[in-house]
Amino acid sequence: MTAGPDDTGERGLTAGLSGPVRAWIAIASALSVTIAVWIMFGLGHALGLYVPLETEYLYCLIGLLLPLVFLINTVSGQRRSGAVPFYDGLLAAAAFGIPITFAVVSDAMLNEGWEYTAPPYAKVLSYVMWALVLEALRRSAGMTIFVICAVISLYPFYADWAPGLLRAQSTAFDITAGYHIFGSESILGVPMNAFATLVIGFLIFGVALQYTGGGAFFLNLAFALLGTHRGGPGKVAIFSSGLMGSMSGSVITNVLTTGVMSIPAMKRVGFKPAYAGGVEACASTGGVLMPPVMGATAFVMATFIEMPYSEIVLAAAIPSLLYYAGLFLQIDAYAARHGIKGLPAEELPSVRTVMKEGWYFIAVFALLVFMLLYLQREAQAPFYASLLLIVINQISPRHRWDRAKLIRFVQAVGTMLAELAALLAGVGLIIGALTLSGKVGSIAYELVAFAGDNIFLLLVTGAVTSFILGMGMTVTAAYIFLAVTLAPALTTSGLDLMAVHLFMLYWGMVSFITPPVSLGAFAAASIARSDPMKTGLQAMRLGSIIYFLPFFFVLNPALIGRGPAEEVLMVVLSAFAGIVLIAGGLQGYLLGFGVISGGRLVSLACRILLILSGIALALPGNATLGLSHSALLGGGAVLFGLALALAWIARSPRTA
């Protein structure tokens, strides 16, 4: 069983469009990348040539990328497969012309304070631009997020009529529009800044990885390493989806890329369809939380909290590995309990063959990590990695591009950049509206007052809000909203800044595996041909560690590596031991002991005790909890001893 090269043929993103439209997409994509390289590598300073203002740069990117949304997507938000109607052509022309006009007059805009006193023609253009950003957001991200962003973007205008803590002084419509379009806190704010200074390079790297066969390599490597082991295909899904997800940053893309191979293989060796789909959904969701890339949200976070991206990567590594450890242990336990074997060795590629064909993916990955963590060149690292990957790809005959493949790669880059730019410009309106109305600080104050300085109540409020927003918005949009409103309240209560923002990121991801939405599980169910709701429930059970981890590390940041080395080591080791017990309780099979047997009540009691003991071990002790590490370890040990004794007494000779 060997995965073939990634399909990047005429089924590509722009295959159904006319030649001129595809040509413009390629040109706009190439120009966007060129401008980004010019800025991120400081070529203007180095060569003594023109150095654009930040606003010029951002407007140029918007002017090049926003029109592509109207060319690629229909009014209904579906991918276009025919000619572009005249009205979409007009929208695309306006989405190009207006931002480019603003780029040209950026000096006057800044000197004259257009966000409050724009000339009449600029006010009219700002209304049109506002509408264009929202329409591009609707076509690229869906109706739900469009409605949320549209309503909140208008908030400064109707703030006088808002109820309760949302009431504020209203702002004139023209000033609201000017602030959104010309100010530095709305569409040109943190989300678009993160996109323009960090995200672009990693998106290019992700597309290059896909178009050079990276997905097939990681999948084949996973099969070679783990395919023959107990429950092998399930472990393959974890390994391959974790690697690919950390690069692509997209749950659904990850499921559809690796799931087409891993899910049928899991079903073949005995995994039930819903369980196989749940495994892939959890593995793909975890990939977005796995360094070094972690998706667009992590880059927005780095910009938001003004910390180097390398610090976020290091902080996210421990909880991510613990999540995958819990998933791996559960799959191993499930396979052991149900007698599920691996795949025959003769059907799988050898590690030597796989590495011989794709060694350069590991080399490129190592270069990326080295530049991120050691050199701390976050902005430039993915460009170097992409360049190295493409150069080696052209030397190797296996996935070498011809002219047509190169053009399709450039078009794919442009398509991905356009849709993310539309999303980030749209959700930037949320920040702009709350900033203009002055509600950012007051909402945080009201939340703290509501919780009565109770950190636990604030955390639960944050978790529930993140989950609900994650159901209707993208993770990035949900994170941005909470970073503006809830994060200040949590950090004011004394919680670690990094831990708070990672907490919101994790809980924003939960909706991908939690019914009733569980988009990741539903995508996996379509491949597994299983009931979507059953697949979602299986994913929720398998990924249950993700519900606990954010509370663990936000209450004690040692679990994200922030603290004395000895405390970090103790907390991580006890957390791993706790996850072993939680996984054993959930699956009814304890590593080193075997199946937890006996009557239904005895088995249930043992499993509950194991889960409780695991939580006690994994929960970091601190002053906030009022419990020390030793107290929690002692309590966990007692509960584990009771569970083990009960399981041992109930164990029959037949199951020994």
Automatic annotation (TrEMBL):
InterPro entries with a match to the protein in the record: DctM (IPR010656), TRAP_DctM-Dct_fused (IPR011853)
Membrane recorded as keyword: yes
One GO CC term on file: plasma membrane
Keyword Heme: no
Regions crossing the membrane: 21-44, 56-75, 87-106, 118-134, 141-158, 194-226, 238-263, 283-305, 312-331, 358-374, 409-434, 455-484, 504-527, 539-556, 568-589, 601-619, 631-650
Protein function: Part of the tripartite ATP-independent periplasmic (TRAP) transport system.
Protein name: TRAP transporter fused permease subunit
Species in which this protein is naturally found: Pelagibius litoralis
UniProt lineage: Bacteria, Pseudomonadati, Pseudomonadota, Alphaproteobacteria, Rhodospirillales
